[in-house]
Amino acid sequence: LIQELLRVMRTIDDRIVHELNTTIPTASFVGKIDASQTCKELYQSLMDAHTSRERIIKNCIAQTSSVVKTLREEREKAQDDVALLKQLRKEQTKLKLMQSELNVEEVVNDRSWKVLGHLKQ
Fold first, then answer.
1. Is the separation of the CB atoms in 12 and 45 below 8 Å?
2. H helices within the chain, ranges in order?
3. Structure confidence by residue, pLDDT tens digits, 30-51
4. Of 58, 71, 44, 51, nearest to 99 (Cα)?
């Protein structure tokens, strides 16, 4: 569920080149479109998207970490509870997945900023 949400939220990054091609005017449209303003708006949209995604991922990590901690404490008291162990493993896997999403987010963000950075050159 969270991965699907992140995939949808990363659309702006996936389409950055297309966005730039459709927002930066060609020579014939230079006077009709404010490229500087358009770039600022695209930059702000990227910043907002990156901030939102990072906040969502970190919130999920915090919540899942809390669940894992609680399950570990319960497991200490009931070491032969197989269902509890199964649930703990499931939550630990989910936590690792969320932590890896932070790494994915960093790569996605870097790629988008590099594309935008080429405009300044």
1. yes
2. 2-9, 11-14, 16-23, 35-77, 82-120
3. 556 666 777 788 888 889 999 9
4. 58
- Residue 50 tokens read as 């990156």
The token pair at 84 is 């509890």
- CB of 7 closer than 8 Å to CB of 106: no
Distance of CA 71 to the CA centre of its chain: 27
- Residue 50 burial (CB count, 10 A): 20
**Chain segment 55-71, per-residue pLDDT in tens:** 999 999 999 999 999 99
Distance CA 47, CA 14 (A): 14
Written as six digits, the tokens of 59 are 């919130």
Residue among 106, 116, 114 at smallest CA distance from 53: 106
Please tell me the distance from the alpha carbon of residue 64 to that of residue 51, in angstroms, as a whole number.
20
